[in-house]
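OP here, attaching both records as promised.
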Amino acid sequence: MNDLPDQHGRIAVITGANSGIGLEAARELTRAGAHVVMACRDTAKGDRAAETIRAEIPGAELDVAALDLASLASVRAFAERYSDERLDLLINNAGVMVPPYTKTADGFELQFATNHLGHFALTGLLLDRLLATPGGRVVTVSSTAHKFGRIDFDDLQSERSYRRWRAYGQSKLANLLFMFELDRRLRAIDADLLSVAAHPGYSATNLQFAATPSRIERLGSTVLNRVYAQSAERGAMPTLYAATADIPGGSFVGPDGFQEMRGEPKVVKSTRAARDPQTALRLWEVSEQLTGIHFSVADRSAPLLSKS
């Protein structure tokens, strides 16, 4: 995507930037002049990814920082180490997909913890920088899987029953509920900060293979990636569009092709469940309780400040 607006002077944090959509977003934002912080669980992989960008883009402004979204301690440590007073762009991109049932050190189901709770906490802890930066933006990366997602408040951590795809759909629906609720709260205080979301369609990345336990599933993913999926470069286009285009808060961006699986980026529709304000408010309050990160906006009109 070579037509990005000039990004010189902007600072962007991208989670999961060492591969796939995150890496391509980091590459193109850097190419456009942004200073990018690549927040990665594995910093060795992050360093190697950063070197590929530096080799391609002389003078690229890149930092690699440790961030494990499955660990609230790691999220807090990252936020404490982030020393710049401004932050123009936060891209909540990292994620895991359909792993075997795993509990994090904090006692949360891995997909819900990584895909939703970690990003919820990270956004809250960096919120003062985002609010202090004119024209700031938070981009939350969801998936078409949100369409079959359902928030099970009676079993958020899948302790009674774990179905990998159901848990993944729940986490991706949670991403959108969070984006819309943050947008409502920002609008209530007329903040100069946008909350938007994107999904990549069906893109060939490592995500399909990272935790797939079955050889048959791996073979199927390999065939589909080669025959049907678009590249990671094209899969990053909705994220980049959401990050830089002139769109209103609350926008959801995806590919314009059949079933939004591939194509050019455009603003698309989410499900009614993703836009339900009652579910979003309840999820927000539960997420505050689980993470210990509190946003002082219970009535959606108080000053939007995070505290822990």
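Record two, same layout:
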Amino acid sequence: MRKISIIIVSVLIVSSLLVGCEGVLNEGEPAQNSEPQTDGNKANESITEQANIITWDAVLYFSDREGMNIIKREKEIVFIEDVNKQEGTLTIGEKSKLSIEALIEGIKGEDVTTTIPPETDVLSVVLDDKTLIVDLSKEFEQNHIGGSTGIMMTMAPLVLTLTEFEEVEQVKFIVEGNVLEDFKGHIEFNRPFTRGEYSGYLK
């Protein structure tokens, strides 16, 4: 009787050890019904593939580094449209805004420069009949270097670049929605500007 009791106890101990070992071996293994991990980059790639990508060679005008002449350059602009828009539906206002931002950014490796303050934001660009109305942030005026030459080398590239569009005959600038009577005390700023005023500076 005593031998039988000892055997039963031994079997129970061995069984407990085996169960414990199995628990250790299974620790850290994923559950059978766990969902696979997804790569967030794949979702971004999918959106990009669905988007309408528009590229065009924008005609831009910059100042030379001596501030004496205006130089014409081309720069490829890439724009990714909203996936819900029809392909190629950028308006003249939208293209003009992108062109101004490209002017502010400049072209690396080229012997050209811009006097548009880099902190300038393009708030809106609207085409009203043949007049393009450009609303710029206050940094355009506040952070500008001033001086007659500096202002000329800002206005000429802007006006020449924006009047490259056939639909635009003249450009009017406002700052934070306000019409300025003059710009830094040098030029009258409450009127539209035309291409003919600055074409003589082209090199």
